[in-house]
Amino acid sequence: MITAEQLKDIKERTEALNRYLDIEGKKIQVEEEQLRTQAPGFWDNQKAAEAQMKKVKGLQQWISGYNEVKTLADEVQLAFDFYKDELVTEEEVDDAYAKAIAAVEALELKNMLREEADQMDCVLKINSGAGGTESQDWASMLMRMYLHYAETHGYKATIANLQEGDEAGIKTCTIEISGDYAYGYLKGENGVHRLVRVSPYNAQGKRMTSFASVFVTPLVDDTIEVNIEPARMSWDTFRSGGAGGQNVNKVESGVRLRYQYKDPYTGEEEEILIENTETRDQPKNRENALRLLRSMLYDKELQHRMAEQAKVEAGKKKIEWGSQIRSYVFDDRRVKDHRTNFQTSDVNGVMDGKIDGFIKAYLMEFAGSGE
Description:
- The chain has helices spanning 4-21, 23-37, 46-84, 90-110, 133-152, 182-186, 282-312, 347-351, 356-366; strands at 121-128, 156-164, 170-178, 191-198, 207-219, 233-238, 254-262, 269-276, 324-329, 334-337, 343-344.
- By secondary structure, the chain is of the alpha+beta class.
- It has an 8-stranded mixed β-sheet, with helices on both faces.
- The two termini are 37 Å apart.
- Its main location: cytoplasm.
């Protein structure tokens, strides 16, 4: 059974969250922001109105999240007192504590996501590395892992583009993941993921190493201004692939957007290539491709800001974007993150989307680095 010290700890952490989150201040802010939604002509500008409603909802979620933690912490105290009077069992006290500590830790973690982009939806792109079928199979396993993660966390996941492998797996895919703080939680997945296993595609049964890269960018909405120069854009159309149907391979609904990007800080130029086959409607695919371009340009600005901040805070641990971040060693039953040293032997669980331990370890080590 829990100790009096554990009970004291959970009460202190609950009180600390009340201070850190400024719950009383947020309650006043919600009232003020709600008043704005009652102004005449509020819905005349729909985009601005939707942004305002999102702001109100975000504040309310912090308050309700804290209220849940406070209720669960109070229930632990109650169960602890009832146990002294032999009204509840040890198991019931421990169960109340387990629920409360999980809620406290979840809110403490969310409290670390304070950057502007953290609360946004995100775009997650997976590219298979060199190695043909083996790497393409690994890329498809990662896609499945992230789709499962999204599903278990109540996020909406939409595959915006998918190119299947020659024999198995995928060459590349782009997934849009929508939900509260999707980018904040998934931004630490950015980098190279390494698989070591006995390959089913190798006749000699040799141990093979495969790589796939994951790129995570915030999905910006219309309330954030991103400068796109039309003169640098060009479009192609192509026939979307797919599993049969009368429309398949007959209508050029797929779009390919090329953007000649010039870095405003270094002057370096590169071509950004975006393909979208999300729908059978070419105008919608164009709109989706433009939204992805805006997200990528916003992310480049974000990365520049992070690099500048890193120069200022040279003493702090550097996060290498695009470096090898995690190894999945199947026959040793081990998945290890090289940045945080967090590891688990539950390989099957990880591949089924249970990556919360890695996400938590990353945020605890790096999310507060700008504080």
